[in-house]
Amino acid sequence: MTRSTAALAARGLTVGYRDHVVIDGLDLSIAAGRVTALCGPNGCGKSTLLRTLAGLQPARAGQIDVNGRPLASFRRRALARELTMLAQFNQIPSGLTVRELVAYGRYAYGGFLRGLSRADHAAIDEALDTSGLAGDAERDVGALSGGERQRAWIAMALAQQAPIVLLDEPTTYLDIHHQLDILDALRALNRARGLTIVWVLHDLNQAAAYSDDIVLMRAGRVVAQGSPDAMLEPAQLRAAFGVDMLKLAHPQTGAPMCVPAYGPPAESPGPKASGAAHAFERAIDRDIAV
């Protein structure tokens, strides 16, 4: 992938907190107009990488380019027109309605001192509708459930209308119904507008179903990057997560899926049960006999 086709590119990126290095010499290229999932074990640097790509966390070394331009050359408002980020944890504002919160996403287009334009209101309405909150626009954000609040933050990010959207675990706090609603909506926006989406997802099957590319990380480095079909290979998942996984095909769509490989294979007798296990089995047998 050339720099001209990369929405985001990092070279030799090193990031840390005090004396702890979180990302170590990382190279990464995110294709424009595609959906890319960052996956890996807890503590591998996914959230730190996302924050650094967004300009919220300084790098110790290396360079980041946004649409071919050095990240360091952007002023804050100009950068906000290029990318938006939804963090994993957000402070709950007090005394704001959902609509007022979502309106903050329009900061990049003129600040808060001017009134909202017709285009601003249209963007806010569309973001509320996409996030399923059109009927809750006048509710106080503090009165929302965890899932509703998460959707409100997503709506604010969408109202910014930046071509690059970074999302750190966007399905956090959501039940499966709303998880799929949000993933479907974001995927539809990617296809309709050509948005570049980079999200951190822990559910590998959701990552495979909704992403064009998956980046597997471990210990602050990229282990592998490629299509969901290639990244769900057992060898790749073991390299990233250190566990044995089985790759399957979805029974309806044929899309790649993975499940943990539990215990020994069915044809193997496996290790003999311990003395404690035998005692437990005998106790069960006695209870059944009684």
TrEMBL record:
Q: Name one GO molecular function term.
A: ATP binding
Instruction: Return the InterPro entries for the record.
Output: AAA+_ATPase, ABC_transporter-like_ATP-bd, ABC_transporter-like_CS, P-loop_NTPase, Siderophore_ABC-ATPase
Membrane topology type = Peripheral membrane protein
Q: Where in the cell is it found?
A: Cell membrane
What keywords tag this UniProt record? ATP-binding, Cell inner membrane, Cell membrane, Ion transport, Iron, Iron transport, Membrane, Nucleotide-binding, Transport
Q: Does the keyword rRNA processing apply?
A: no
Q: Which GO terms describe its cellular component?
A: plasma membrane
- All residue ranges annotated as the ABC transporter domain in the record: 8-244
Predominant place of localization: membrane
First and last residue of the signal peptide: none
Query: Which Pfam families does the record match to this protein?
Result: ABC_tran
Q: Which GO terms describe its biological process?
A: iron ion transport
User: Family assignment?
Assistant: Belongs to the ABC transporter superfamily.
Protein name, per record: Cobalamin/Fe3+-siderophore ABC transporter ATP-binding protein
